[in-house]
TrEMBL record, chain A:
GO-annotated molecular function: ATP binding; ATP hydrolysis activity
Name listed for the protein in its UniProt record: ATP-binding cassette domain-containing protein
Keywords from the UniProt entry: ATP-binding, Nucleotide-binding, Transport
ABC transporter domain: residues covered: 2-228
Species of the source: Metallococcus carri
Lineage: Bacteria, Bacillati, Actinomycetota, Actinomycetes, Micrococcales
UniProt family annotation: Belongs to the ABC transporter superfamily.
TrEMBL record, chain B:
UniProt key word Disulfide bond: no
Keyword Transmembrane helix among UniProt keywords: yes
Entry keyword set: Membrane, Transmembrane, Transmembrane helix
Superkingdom: Bacteria
Protein name: ABC transporter permease
Organism for this UniProt entry: Metallococcus carri
Transmembrane segments: 49-68, 80-100, 127-148, 168-190, 197-216, 242-262
Length: 298, 272
């Protein structure tokens, strides 16, 4: 359980994180979504006691991070897979972690296996690791202490498709055991597949928050038919606002409602569904358009 | 069937780490932090090569003392020990600097301070680790000096004096400890390897230059560590020299350490 309350970080006049409030609940994967520079990393550093907040609080398992005894046994943190000594071997990095946490050396071998790093790879120095291997090592490091909470900043970065799939099922399994997962990403599709809850942040502020399904339902329905003009009129006659797309119509009602109206008017539908497949991306761009650097272009 | 099963449990086949027996409620003991910091001093090539260099330079100095000069001049145990002090006085503080600054230059601080958020304890563990390694280096230097003295008698036919004053012996540890403390302190203040090394060598030496100006002479006597530490190494301290030593230690070691530790506990630890 992570509870963030009115968390704020100012650098001079600039508010990098502005009164951010949300919960990440046990048994669920919470996706922390936002464009570059939106304040995701600053927020996560404040949760882990690395950056002192200007105001507000963040607690993990009911305590502020600094008050957790041996925090690595409660919270697994991966903020930057590149932030390790380039001259240390993967095994040595995990060994230092295990020593600090007071865990047996066998735990290092176990975690290497869990993340799929071979003994040979573990003997190589970090500077010879690909980004994907560094992420796997970082996830192994985060899992060392058998934590109940995971805080991961862009963990899918640099992973190949198979790696992303592996991580997705690993995090799902972790949450199904009752663990809390907070992971940030700008990879929208990745978050869409894995997250149960979403926190969307733009320019330091939360722009949307809630269960993924609820947020996506708000994204509406997309429909295509053999006669879009007649369908649009039928929908409008039922008091539904219709937005014209490229050969499609978008409405803010359920697919079922659209289907029934089409059936009534005997219009053949060629496509009908919630906007969810592209919905998150649309929503994300919409919600953060005013905040993103590309705001003017979008 | 199997596709349905895997769809129902998407993580089937992905292994999770085994659960650990007890949830940890005890803080990390200081000794464990110390052990980890000691290990971090030697588990990289940079750290190992620094230690190897200290050892190698000590051997070179002993070789030079052994094979130059007249057989019975400067071949005593105390002379050899005095020879080993030089390279160590230069390099041990760098060890102290690196133990701190590498957390920032290599960005490992992100992990270190996440595992132990009470950063003061990490800072103390680093200081103590650098001191312990430094003392080990001194003891190895003394052993080398003993071998050098023995070889002098064998090879050069010297008739060495094995006398060593307790003052000089303990003074050596004390003076090197001050150097290491300065290194750690400067490292914590500046959190940048080249900056800390330059500052460490330049600032106290600045007083040598400043004090050559007549009216600044007194300031040099009190603040130039090159001058105030010399009698500590010799083990011949007068009351006034103790005062000079204590003041310069306060200014160049205790103060940077205290302010550095304070800054380190407050600094933002970032990855970039």
């Amino acid at each position: 359980m992570i509870t963030v309350n009115q968390l704020t970080k100012r650098y001079g006049q600039h508010a990098a994180v502005d009164a951010v409030t949300f919960d990440a609940k046990p048994g669920r994967v919470t996706g922390f979504l936002g464009p570059n520079g939106a304040g995701k990393s600053t927020c996560m550093r404040m949760m882990c006691g690395l950056t002192p907040p200007t105001s507000g609080t963040a607690t993990i398992l009911g305590r502020s991070y600094a008050d957790l005894p041996n925090p690595g046994r409660h919270v697994g943190v991966l903020l930057d897979a590149q932030a390790q000594h380039a001259g240390r071997t993967g095994r040595e990095i995990l060994t230092l972690g295990a020593l600090t946490l007071g865990l047996p050396r066998t735990r290092v071998d176990e975690l290497l296996e869990v993340v799929g790093l071979t003994q040979v790879e573990a003997k190589r120095r970090l500077r010879d690791y690909s980004l994907g291997m560094r992420q796997r090592l970082g996830i192994a490091h985060a899992l060392l202490g058998d934590p109940q909470v995971l805080v991961l900043d862009e963990p899918a970065n640099g992973l190949d498709p198979a790696g992303i799939r592996w991580m997705r099922s690993l995090l799902r399994g972790f949450a199904d055991q009752g663990g809390t997962v907070l992971l940030s990403s700008h990879l929208l599709h990745e978050i869409q597949v894995i997250a149960d809850d979403l926190v969307v942040i733009g320019r330091g502020r939360i722009v949307a928050e809630g269960a993924k399904d609820d947020l996506l339902a708000a994204a509406g329905t997309t429909v295509r038919s053999t006669d879009n003009a007649r369908l649009a009129k039928a929908l409008q006659d039922n008091g539904i606002d219709v937005t014209q797309g490229f050969g499609s119509l978008s409405v803010q009602v359920t697919p079922e409602r659209v289907g029934r109206i089409a059936l009534e008017h005997q219009i053949v539908l060629t496509e009908l569904g919630s906007t969810s497949s592209t919905g998150l991306e649309e929503m994300f761009l919409q919600l953060t358009a005013a905040d993103a650097r590309e705001g003017a272009a979008a | 069937m199997s596709t349905i099963a895997s769809a129902a449990t998407p993580h089937a086949g992905t292994r999770l780490p085994s659960r650990l027996a007890e949830a940890a409620t005890t803080p990390i003991p200081f000794l464990r932090l110390l052990k980890v910091e000691l290990r971090k001093l030697v588990d990289t090539r940079a750290g190992r090569w620094l230690l190897i260099t200290i050892g190698a330079l000590t051997l070179v100095v002993i070789g030079i003392l052994l094979f130059t000069g007249k057989p019975n001049e400067g071949k005593g145990f105390g002379d050899f020990i005095a020879g080993t002090v030089g390279p160590q006085a230069v390099l041990l503080p760098i060890l102290g600097i690196l133990t701190v600054t590498s957390e920032w230059s290599q960005r490992t601080g992100l992990v270190t301070f996440t595992l132990e958020p009470r950063r003061l304890r990490v800072g103390l563990a680093k200081f103590l680790a650098a001191l312990l390694v430094g003392f080990a280096a001194i003891i190895v230097g003394v052993a080398f000096a003993a071998v050098g003295t023995g070889l002098g008698a064998l090879v050069r036919g010297s008739n060495p004096s094995w006398a060593l004053s307790a003052g000089a012996f303990f003074g050596m540890f004390l003076a090197q400890a001050v150097g290491i403390a300065m290194g750690v302190g400067f490292g914590m203040l500046l959190r940048n390897t080249p900056g800390a090394i330059v500052a460490y060598f330049f600032l106290p030496t600045l007083w040598s230059i400043v004090s050559s100006i007549s009216f600044m002479k007194t300031a040099g006597e009190w603040l130039d560590t090159n001058k105030t530490l010399a009698p500590v190494f010799d083990g011949s301290m007068s009351g006034e020299q103790w005062a000079h030593f204590l003041v310069s230690t306060l200014v160049w070691a205790v103060l940077p350490l205290a302010v550095g530790m304070w800054r380190m506990t407050r600094a933002e630890v970032k990855s970039a």
